[in-house]
Amino acid sequence: MFLWGEINLAKPNDLAENGASENGIQFVPTTKPIITSFSATNSTVAFSKSDGTSYFLRRQRDQDGIVTFSETKSVKCKHVVASSSGDSILLLLSRDGSVVYVELGASAIPRSLQNFIKKRIIQVACGDQHSIVLTEDGQALSWGSNARGQLGLTLPETSVVPSPTPVAALSGVPLVQVTAGGAHTLALSVSGTVFGWGQNDAGQLGLGDTTDKSTPVTVECLNLKKTVSISCGERHTAVLTKGGVVLTFGSGGCGQLGHNSLLNELTPRVVAELWGAAVTQVSCGSNHTMALVGPTKKIYSFGRGEEGQLGNRLTTDCSVPLPVLLPHDDRSIQQIFAGGNQSVALRSFSQEPEKAHPGIITVLDMDTIDFWLSKCQNAKSWCKIRKQIEDIFSSTSSLNASFLDRSVDKHYRTSPRSSGLDLVLLSTALAKLATKAKVLQKVETVVRDCLLPSLTGQPVGFEGLRVYYLLVELLQVLVRDNFGEMLSVRVADAFLSLHQDRLEVLVRLWSWTPDFFRSAVETFCKASRKLLSSLDVDYREQADFFMKTAGVLQRLHSASSSGSWRLAESVFHVTTVTNTIEMFEQLFLSCNSILQYYPWFLPELNDEEQRTLIKRDYYLSILLPLVKYPCILPVECKLKLWKYHLNIATLQPGYIEFTINRATVQQDTFQSLRTSSHDPKLKLAVKFNEEYDMHLGGVVMEFFHLLAKELQKAEPQILEKNDDGVAWFSRNVAQLTDEFFLLGTLCGMALYNQCLMNIPFPLALFKKLLGLKPTLDDLMELSPTVAQSFKDLLDYEEKTVEDLQLDFGGDAEDLDLLPNGELIQVTKDNRQKYVDLQVDMVFSRSVEHQFKEFERGFLRGCPSPEWRMFLPDQLMTLLKGEEVFNWDDLRQHAKYQGCTSNDEVIKNFWIVFAEFSVEQKKDFLIFISGTDRNPKLRSSTIMIKINLSCYQEPELYYPEAVTCCWTLNLPNYSNIQTLRQKLLHAVECCDTFGLQ
């Protein structure tokens, strides 16, 4: 062993024999017992020997500034393979994974750390006043002073933690190294991610700032660098990559960063002098750094040299790496240590020292799975297998490291685009486990009871999210094997506790493996279907469980929809919702039948009748909240739920009453809204002057039909139309605040009253109402020519975009797209931003006031917020209805009363209807329903009822319509000519006499 710096461990005759004192390097012969570990700080030096004895000395400085060391004290501890010392504590790690700690006081009594930590420990590290250890399952535990946040715990920074406490933020990350500086701490994951926390006044955490961190933060600059080891000095840090590159950061005042500078570095910077040198080890003292080059076994050092710790004959600081001048060209160096103001180099031996614990966390591999499957029926082996299952599947870190894609180091590429997992291996392993129900059931129990409760809602870094891959795959296996019902609920809880930004990161990761994301969605859909189909009024928790899995699907849908990649809506649908709604409807009819006879005497109902009423209320309590999870609902289910909510909302007595002249429908309506206060939750009733009394249903439908036509030609024009008839807010009448508010109010009222308001708004309006941004495709609907020019710009390749001489300014009427936009030229690099800003200008900035007032009115007119469950195109159809093109459906779905489809008068009716032009057919729909469009809320197809009215002189009567129930009262005309004449007159004049 070679040693240089403040302390002298060599005997005088050793120095004389080897001549090592010439370079300030001491030589300690490698006779047994040999040194197996070394550590030092500014105040202590500790080392262990293979005979089971560990030694430590205290550093002292007298009044003259002379440094001396106290008498060597010894501690007995067998098979020590690593040690670490702080100002007041010494940690000794044994080969078996046990740790002894010694408080460096007068007594120095060794104590076992296993009293606090039951698991095997693979690494130890001490800062000045804090300690941290790493267990075999990849969990870090820290204790001591937290004055600078160096413990990584969510505790006051002034607190002192007396015993090892898990660093919860890293509980799901598979760590392979922990290291401590003076008051800062770093950890390294199996995939090369570096985390830092604690003191950061010199940038020693590598985060680009000088702010202390009390919880672990990812050192982003080191991502994808394949970091394999870290070492901390007092206020600086060095990292080593798999390719042998050394990067340093933090305090540089003594040159300890090796950048030929005394400046601090806030982010990791490559030590240029060591570039290409294939460094295999790096170690930091308090203010100096050493690096071992593997092929040549040369040692380089830099930093503080006052005490001779650089080993280069100098006692001055050095800011670039220089070779350590060993007594001769010794190529047997195997390991280097730097600590405090000391440096040590260990040689290789013919008699090998105690081998260190490999420092690799426990993982699940295929050999272990094969052992479980082959021996699980053996009682003696099963005890061992159970323990192994518990150890591995209770640890997120162990599982996280179990299925890494190690081919060409792919797991080092863990990022927003790569999970670092071998998904084929993961799927294969879990499918193999599923072949033995006994093993799989034990796995399920451990995951449910141990693993899931340990998950945090906001894991640090990308690696902390990898366990969710395993949970999805495991849940898929369990659901497929028809057990694991409670696990699906617990997994749902874990996903729901995941912070939204973490979930979005996870979904983005999944988006690069679409099959896996689809599998995740389908797994939760299957679990939801299973839970929904087993609803029981006597087991009401089942409904809560279903809401959790539905909540996961909604969160996955939201995260997916916010990105550039998304699944089809139908993939999220839980189809059994349809059956649940049908069951409720049957119960509803049964209850209506019961209450018809017992409206006031419910206590007299028999047990079965009371249970039917209870089941109806139970199912309704499940169905109504489903609007919070719209992604799981097919549109037919949404329509029914919307209707249920509206019927409940409008149960209160009273109406909003409008009395309107047909000739002035828009002015009268606006005047009524301006001059009368009303409760927006009441239903609307309309009466046309000089016609029948106040009515609901078809008359209200007709009212909105007429109003929609008038609003599109009203003066002043608050709406502008393009050549295709698509309407948008007028940009030049923003001062007409009241009109835009009233327009929005009427659209909201139409939706709330289950009527249609067919103003030809583009889909973009409904996106904006739902909080979504319109896109270039939406502009294609409103301004096809302009939109096409923007698409051409994005595809423009023949010449440089700069040749088009476009800028980010506005025209004479527009705002600039960007401040001083006329000075910013459009280029290939920023053209997408230019197009996005142009789209935003059309749909948002140029009509910001108009839309804001419209939205305010819409929310007042429709006070039931459940409309937000619809997608933009669904909401548009709900408000505007659909054009009816397949007129044969009217005949196919028609119902008859007092007649049949074979009666002569009915045959004549359909002959006449077939003769009608498209406009006449639309007029017929207005006559019978109040609108010429198909209201999706009422039925997927238009269903009319024809009631034959028998008169002695039918020629004296015209057909009549009951618009609220789409019924045609058709007189029993004797011939087709009379029927044609009377029906045409009724249809063409319906706007004037406004029948019910």
Automatic annotation (TrEMBL):
SUPFAM superfamilies: Hect, E3 ligase catalytic domain, RCC1/BLIP-II. Keywords: Repeat, Transferase, Ubl conjugation pathway. GO terms for molecular function: ubiquitin protein ligase activity. It comes from Gadus morhua (Atlantic cod). InterPro entries: HECT_dom, Hect_E3_ubiquitin_ligase, RCC1-like_dom, RCC1/BLIP-II, Reg_chr_condens, Ub-ligase/GTPase-reg. One of its GO terms (biological process) is protein polyubiquitination. The active site is at C964 (glycyl thioester intermediate). The keyword Repeat applies. This is Probable E3 ubiquitin-protein ligase HERC3. RCC repeats lie at residues 91-137, 138-191, 192-243, 244-295, 297-349. PROSITE patterns: HECT, RCC1_2, RCC1_3. Coiled coil: none annotated. Pfam families: HECT, WD40_RLD. Residues 676-996 form the HECT domain. It comes from the Eukaryota.
